[in-house]
Amino acid sequence: MVQQRKNDFSQGGIAQNILSLAIPLTVAQLTVVLYNVVDRAFIGHIDTIGRDAFTGIGLVMPATYIVTAFANLCGTGGAPLFSIARGRGDDRRASRIMGVSFTLLLLLGAALTVGFYLFQTPFLYLVGGSDETVVHARDYLQIYLIGVIPVMTGLGMNPFINAQGFGKVGMMTTLLGAVINLILDPVFIFALGMGVRGAALATVIAQTCSAVWVLVFLTGRRAVLRIEKASLGLDGPILRRVCSLGLTGFTFSVTNSLVQALGNAQLQAYGAAAGNGDLYVAAMTAIVSVREIVFQPIRGLTQGAQPVIGYNYGAGKYSRVRESIRFLTVTCLGYNVLVWVLLLAFPRAFILLFNSDPGLLAVGAPTMRIYYAAYVMMSFQMIGQNTFVALGRAKSAVFFSLFRKVILVAPMMLVLPRLWGLGVYGVFASEPVSDMIGGGACFLTMMCTVWREMKRPDEEKL
User: Fold this and answer.
1) Which of 160, 261, 289, 370 is most buried, judged by most C-beta within 10 A?
2) In the structure, how many helices (H) and strands (E) does the chain have?
3) What is the dihedral of CA 395, 440, 253, 99, to 10 degrees?
4) Where does the pLDDT of residue 20 fall: very low under 50, low under 70, confident under 90, or very high at 90 and above?
């Protein structure tokens, strides 16, 4: 019984509990991003074809977001429910939740692999490709698809390691893959002359190593609760709860895919009128790549807090839930203000990480300042949304994820380019408008509902 009550988040300091998970998780999130961002950086510096190849990778990004979305459906849907069940002392149900999530993940991974193989070429043209860039995108995607199930296993099951309090083990999941990817990328791309295909192969090998690490831990003796044969399979009520709550992480990633695809298509259309559609797609690829990097500490903090918030909620420790929200608000806002200033002050330095083409730098610097004009408001979006997830409030979490991307960003990408002659700049301007409206609405709603509810007295459990 002592083993089952390890990592009791109702004890100890809130900041210590959150940071013990958030710091390793942040490192892990950053290294997940390195799988894709390092590829883009190396690809963008290939001689003669660097910019076209880099733009081609931008076309693949919507596909990788979709893969991440389905991994999140299982991981961010199952792990908070897993934490709440542990907080209530129901370890049998927690184990079943993990098994159902893993089964769903394998089924979805197989379906995505087949689907993208069948429709990869029309998909790449649909998301803003041209004849010059689709050839590079297809070279990458064909090999990347081999690793869909491994990448989903690493992303989707790692939250169950973190939810058990093993933040450092969760960090090692992605550190292992990132190191392997960093070593293999230059070898395959440049030394062996494989180019874009080499980058994809390095990523697949790295992701497979991460997946093996996750499965070895979750089936081994160190885990508090393990994946066991008896817990596998699909259970209707649990499956519905996992999918309902997982829709938050799912919609976050799938709407990123939608917005990236729509943005690329709009930039290709309006950019062609300005003389070079591929150039503006390349600028968006660089800007979004930078966002993936700087956004991860916020994601790590908020996701690291989910097990702590969920456990304390399940244990009836409402004062500790409030303390967790306060801590998140201060730390996330402080970090984002610093990042906001750096992005607006030094946009060229960030773009140079991916490509040094003079045309890309000339276009990228002003469009980056537009895109990040209200980036600080993303703190409030993430705090509110992840608090809803941690407490199992699926409807609220999904609504605000959809509200920002589907209700705000996507329509504005269609409308703003037509107003006042904004053209391509209207596509970039849709992001800060949605940051302000979406972030503010999500946080205020959370404060008016969850915060008020958590003011009730703590429950005393025997």
Assistant:
1) 160
2) 17, 0
3) -40
4) confident
**Of 22-31, 171-180, 182-191, 371-380, which range is least confident?**
22-31
Q: What is the DSSP letter of 458?
A: P
d(CA 310, CA 317): 10
Instruction: Give the dihedral sign, CA 259/264/265/271.
Output: positive
**pLDDT at 2 exceeding the cut of 80:** no
In which element (H, E) is residue 343 found?
A: helix 318-345
Q: Which residue has the tokens 């996701």?
A: 303
**Residue 83 carries which side chain, given as an amino acid letter?**
S
Alpha carbon distances (Å) from 443 to 53, 148, 330, 378: 39, 34, 13, 10
Which ranges constitute the DSSP H helices of 127-166?
Answer: 131-144, 148-163
- CA gap 315, 324 in Å, rounded: 14
152 burial class (0-12, 13-18, 19+ CB within 10 angstroms)?
buried
**Rg of the chain taking only CA atoms, in angstroms:** 22
Beta strands in 158-231 (DSSP E): none
Positive/negative CA dihedral, 435, 288, 398, 32: negative
Residue extents of the structural domains in the chain:
13-453
Vertex 134: Cα angle to 130 and 372 (nearest 5) = 75
For residue range 399-431, list pLDDT tens digits in order: 887 888 888 888 999 999 998 888 889 999 999
| pTM (two decimals) | 0.71
* Torsion from C-alpha of 325, 241, 28, 42, nearest 10 degrees: -120
Whether 133 and 55 have beta carbons less than 8 Å apart is answered as yes
CA distance 70 to 356: 34
Phi/psi region, residue 13 (left: phi>0; alpha: psi -120 to 50; beta: rest), is: beta
d(CA 337, CA 169): 30
